[in-house]
Amino acid sequence: MTSTAPATNRAYRRLSVEERRSQLLRAALTLFAHRAPEDVSLDDVAEAAGVSRPLVYRYFPGGKQQLYEAALRSSADALVLCFAEPPTGPPTERLGRVLDRYLDFVDKHDAGFSALLRGGSVAETSRASAIVDEVRRAAAEQILVHLGVPDPGRRVRMMVRTWIAAVEAASLIWLDEDKRPPADELRNWLVDHLLALLAATAASDEETAKVVRGLLALETPSGPVAELGRRVLPMLGDAGHLL
User: Fold this and answer.
1) Range of the domain at 186
2) Which residues of 165-199 are buried (b: 16+ CB within 10 A; e: fewer)?
3) What CATH number corresponds to the domain at position 79?
4) How many domains does the chain have?
5) Is residue 58 part of a domain?
6) How far is CA 83 from CA 36, 86, 119, in A?
7) What is the pTM of this model?
8) pLDDT, tens digit, for every residue of 140-152?
9) What is the tens place of the pLDDT at every residue in 12-29?
């Protein structure tokens, strides 16, 4: 009697070049998400993808460094998308949704995110640093869109980039503190932080003051600006003797 090969073998399909490359990148991203680059080997990637080590080299002849940078580029593209939000509705509510997506990304890529932003990794190169800087600049441009500033001056741009750096730092501290406080509390605090920076900068920069006036016109009585005002104004009353 002639034996018949199992159906699972007959169903095997050879992947195209692009499909195989995507498969390897997905495996690498899963590993880099929760482990520092130096703790991930090509053998780990091959095992996670269910392929041989030589096959990984065939698609990434530059070895782990090339694979890491490709995975980093893929993650960077996903991170930039976190900041994309339709420019409608109150700006602070848009910002809250942006931060929700950003913190969700940080949560799901904790160790990899930390290793990436702290630097000092053996996988860090000028190309990797340039990719990270691209994310920061793209994030700043998106925040400026939400603030309604298509052509910002030096002070406004510096203020927004300062806030982006603070968000990064807060994210790293949040990971160090076992993701406490809860993400929604951190999000609200980061929105308040930007509002405080806007107010402080507006006090000495007319362009920023114009941005604040435009932002206030779009806010609602129940939104973050009003809520922050209700919490802060009583404290300012105690400082009346300084005015």
Assistant:
1) 70-206
2) eebbebbeebbeeeeeeebeebbbebbbebbebbe
3) 1.10.357.10
4) 1
5) no
6) 25, 10, 23
7) 0.81
8) 999 999 999 989 9
9) 357 888 899 989 988 988
